[in-house]
Each structure stands twice: as structure tokens, then as C-alpha cells.
Amino acid sequence: MALPAQLRPIQHHLRTAQEHENRDPVVSYYCRLYAMQTGMKLDSKTPECRKFLVNLMDQLESMKKELSDNESITQEVVGNAHIENYALKLFLYADNEDRAGRFHKNMIKSFYSSSLLMDVLSVFGELSEENVQHRKYARWKATYIHNCLKNGESPQ
Amino acid sequence: TSSLASSVASAEQDDLSQRLSRLRGQV
């Protein structure tokens, strides 16, 4: 279903959900939950957004049913740990590549995805200061290295 | 007609909020 323009801020989280559909359904579920919560705040009144969000809610309900034997879905505290670990794993991979001077698309994507998953952590409550800093650093690094590679410059 | 449309919109919004709470086991 096409994403209405008002809901554009959640497009990357929805893409991450799609990419993890088979690889890690727990990541996929919480990315959609974040998108749902955020989408409702952005616009749940106009018909196109309502239609989109109702569809997203249908998807979430059916995922929850399918994953009913998974503790990371049935207990949000376990889900919180799962998403945080996954986000940190991506961050550490990208950070290691960065420190080793290996700059490539995959590490840029890992930095960016870890920052998106730190957004997702906000469904469980206020982010820790450490996660806020990680998110800021990861998003800045992804943008900076992306721009360097695009302009044929070496990241410092 | 516009007030009917607005009532329908707000009922649908409530429905979404309730479904979200149920999904998260908050009801």
C-alpha cells in the first residue's frame, strides 16, 4: 500500500520492518509497532492515512497471532532487550568497520539501521542517555560517510 | 454531513487506539 505523504517520517522504519520480515520477525514487529504509534500521532484523521494505519494494525495483529509462542512478542520487556541488543550489534559492527578504515555501503546501512532501531526503542519508554547518544552518533556517521563516498572523499 | 464525517473519523480513531492498547495488553 502506498505511504501517504503525511506519514513519510515512518517510511524508513517500515522499510526496516519489511527487510526483517524473515530474517528477524521480532525486529519487524516492533518496527511496525513504532510506525503505528508514530503514524497515529502524525495523522490518523485523513481518509488515506486512516486506511493506511488500519491496514498496518491488521498486519500487527496477525503478526502477534503468528508469533504468539515468542516471548519477545508476548512480553515487551523481553522485546525491549531483543531490539536493544540488535541495535547495538549493528552499531558495533559499523563502528568496528569505521575504526578499521573500511568504508562501504553495508556499514553505512548498519549505522543508519541502528539509529532507526533506537527510535523503535522509544515504544518501551524514554530512551536512556546512552541510547540517545548512540542514535545521534550513528545517524551522523551514516550521513557523513555516505556523503564522503558520494563525493569521492576519504572519511576521516 | 461534515459533522457526521467527523464523528465517523473520531470513532475510527478511538477504534485504532483501542486496538493498539489491546495489542499491547494494556486493556
Structure write-up:
- The complex is a heterodimer of chains A (156) and B (27).
- Chain A is mainly α.
- Helix content of chain A is 72%, strand content 0%.
- Chain A has 7 helices and no strands.
- Chain A is globular and about 45 Å long.
- Chain B is mainly alpha-helical and 27 residues long.
- The N and C termini of chain B lie far apart (33 Å).
- The model of chain B has no long low-confidence stretch (mean pLDDT 78).
- Classes of the chains: A mainly alpha (156), B mainly alpha (27).
Radius of gyration of chain B: 11 Å
Secondary structure class of chain B reads: mainly alpha
Largest sheet of chain B: none
The low-pLDDT segments of chain A are none
Which helices and strands occur, and which strands form pairs?
The complex is a heterodimer of chains A (156) and B (27).
Chain A: H1 11-19, H2 25-42, H3 47-66, H4 71-74, H5 76-99, H6 105-120, H7 129-150
Helix pairs in contact in A: 1-2, 2-3, 5-6, 6-7
Chain B: H1 2-23
Question: Which key features would you list for this structure?
Answer:
heterodimer; A: 156 residues; mainly alpha; B: 27 residues; 81% helix
In short:
By secondary structure, chain A is mainly alpha-helical. Chain A is 72% helix and 0% strand.
